[in-house]
Amino acid sequence: MKIQAGRSVLELVEGDIIRQDTEAIVNAANQSLLGGGGVDGAIHRAGGPQILAECRQLGGCPTGEARITTGGNLKARYVIHTVGPVYRDGLHREPELLASCYRESLKLASARGLKSVAFPSISTGAYGYPLADAARIALKTVKAYLQEHPEIERVRFVLFGQAAYAAYEAAMKEL
Ligand code: ADP
After folding, report:
1. Residue 158 has what pLDDT?
2. What is the pLDDT of residue 80?
3. For position 58, which CATH number holds?
4. What pLDDT is stored for residue 112 in this prediction?
5. pTM of the full structure
6. Nearest residue by C-alpha to atom 9 in ligand 1
7. Ligand 1 atom closest to Cα of 164?
8. Which domain covers residue 89, as residue numbers?
9. Contacts of 173 (CB under 8 A, 6+ apart)
10. What is the tens place of the pLDDT at every residue in 99-110?
11. Does residue 27 line the site of ligand 1, with CB under 6 A?
12. Residue 139 Cβ < 6 Å to ligand 1
């Protein structure tokens, strides 16, 4: 499914983030930036040691912020690493921190002149963010950014599995 956001396209696909041919893919990293499970493990396995070597130089990343490295052996030229909030009860700034991840990642893409970015569903795996809430925040935040920033032509959410895709599709229909 896809919609227009200003002059840009916002689209949903079911698939694997490491296979995307967008100029950047986004990693749901942890604060150390030194690798982990889920999307993070898949990106480092597929991208090779170059990405981790660059991450070591960055000295970590606070929750809600983002950092950029090259894409190593991936099709994508860059990886944007962002650290989502660990979900507790929704009353510990989780919504604003999750929104910040999407915005800060897109700001890095804009600053580098990148025209296409693929995101996974940040925080909805090991970090436990409820999928329906996370989907609403993700899509609302990215749509608002694209409406102000036509320099990014395409944002793709790459949802891992049917349940994640269905949650994002429902949220997109309500935008
Ligand atoms: P977090 O720690 O931010 O929760 P995870 O990597 O554990 O990050 O999970 C985030 C989301 O990414 C989950 O919905 C998970 O199903 C999904 N995911 C896991 N592997 C991949 C992949 N290769 N491509 C896209 N999404 C993935």
Report:
1. 98
2. 99
3. 3.40.220.10
4. 98
5. 0.98
6. 125
7. 14
8. 2-174
9. none
10. 999 999 999 999
11. no
12. no
Domain count, the chain: 1
- Known catalytic membership, residue 40: yes
Position 130, amino acid = P
The residue nearest atom 6 of ligand 1, judged by CA position, is 38
Q: What residue type is 133 in one-letter code? A: D
pLDDT bin (cut points 50, 70, 90) of residue 21 is very high
Nearest residue (CA) to ligand 1, atom 15: 125
Please tell me the number of Cα atoms within 13 Å of 127 on its side-chain side. 26
Query: Which whole number is the average pLDDT over 16-45?
Result: 98
Q: Which atom of ligand 1 is nearest to the CA of 17?
A: 24
The single-letter code of the amino acid at 71 is G
Beta strand ranges found along 22-115 (DSSP E): 24-29, 66-70, 78-83
3-state helix, strand, coil in the chain (%, to 5): 40, 20, 35
Ligand 1 center to 146 CA (angstroms): 23
User: Mean pLDDT across the stretch 64-85?
Assistant: 98
Residue 123 beta carbon below 6 angstroms from any ligand 1 atom: yes
Pocket flag, ligand 1, residue 86 (CB < 6 Å): no
